[in-house]
Amino acid sequence: MKYTVAVVGGGVIGLSIAWRTAARGFSVTMYDPDPGHGASWVAGGMLAPTAEAYHGEEGVLRFGLASRARYPSFVAELEEDAGRDAGYTEQGTLLVARDADDAAEIRRLFDLQQAMGLPAEWRTSSELRRLEPALARTVRGGVWMPLDHQVDNRRLIKALCAACSTRGVCFERQSAVEVTSSSVRLSSGELSRADHVVVATGANPSVVMDDGALVTLPVRPVKGQILRLRSVAAAVCPSHTVRGLGIYVIPRSDGEIVVGATSEEKGFDTTVTAGAVMDLLRDAWELVPGIAEAELVEAKAGLRPGTPDNLPIIGRVGCEGSGPIVAVGHYRHGILFAPLTAELVTGLLTDSSTSEHTELLKLCEPARFEAREVRG
Ligand code: GLY
Question: How many angstroms separate the alpha carbon of residue 241 from the centre of ligand 1?
Fold first, then answer.
């Protein structure tokens, strides 16, 4: 008899877990009213741990490098199961200064990248423009990061949904209102039981323990407004991901150009504002002026699930791990962290965690934050 797994939340993390666990022989049900259409759909899809390495975030960097290393095989297996392209492109990333202040700040980031032994090389303005002719003539130097790639998040999501179907994952299009280690209460009131429950609900991950205690984790929504443009003209569309300070431009092979993203502490608000669209377009235009010719196709806002230390929360909750498994709080890196998160959760479910898994799980353990409230 197959063990059953209930995965609550159908973003890139939940879908990756559902696919990987179904491929390992579990009978999996995914609970989400609209799988794949939350923050993962809105995201940019940068796989850029070097470009996003910051002081004091060594754990985030470690997790990102380990997950990025898994991307090629993850995508190859996914495309095999899905029978479709997952949109992974190895094209490298440029971190580019618009002015002297940017150049000084990017130099500091480059020093950090060097100190951490990351693959990053300084380039002068003319070297940058030879590498990427779509850049503005006014750029002031920057960093070439040959191993920071991208994946088209929407193709990835569609591939994950297809691969889940291939592996027999059952999609239950309802919200879960309460979860325990062995049950999911649906919005219809129905109670569904499973041998294992995995919570992958992004920004709102409360769970109820079997003893009635409510466990909450400090995951908050961090709003990101992001634009999608379209152009097939070579002079408009860069051939690498171009990052500036507080802005990025990601070109897709089909002519889509993603421009992101704001970072706003506004609660559960997904309004798109004129000011944000204006700022994003201006900042992107200063790096890649040709985008002024592109069609503006979409402006959306997504909610990144942020945690106090910017690391995800992965593992069993509750006293001595008696509760469900959570995999939440992936903040800016849901797409990047998905392969490793799915591997860690599968390791927990199959009792096959390696010593590398154990170390990574230690970084992400729920107990560092868990608050427990006994309900009357
Ligand atoms: N990692 C890109 C973003 O959060 O906008």
Answer: 13
